[in-house]
Amino acid sequence: MIPLWAQIAGATAALASITSSSTQTLRMLRVRSGEGIAPSTWILLTLSSLAWFAYGISVRSPQQIIANGTWVVLVIPLTWFMLHAKPVRTRIGAELLVALALAFLLGLGVLNENIPAYIGMPASILVNLPQIRYTIRHGRGPGISVAAWAFLTASRFCGSPMESAQAKCLL
Asked: pTM here?
């Protein structure tokens, strides 16, 4: 059983995650590009969101489903923008890869509900490192919406108690 305080932290993380994904989507739609976003950050964010979404479905956690489901839905147009300079077949291939990864993670969640969490945890921890490296090398990361970065950080911070409580349930 997950304590009430952890559920509140999870709901706060879900709200921050939804705000993060919305502000990043609006920024990418406005500039019609994903330029300035480190590809490794994007891959880790996508993997993290897919894994935590699959985990949320496995354990029936509304907070995980809502928070990461928003990113899962928005990752489709955002991935398209990330690959704007690539041929259409590359973009379609990337979208298919995202769909296959989600199906694979959902399948792993059926085998054992904890497997997606074991994949989501390291991806969540490492997600910021490539963008920090990119920003240091190229100056301010112009592809990241400042509001999205702030809300993503808040969602990871607030989600930590929820994830920790869930991790204790894993053991």
From this structure: 0.73
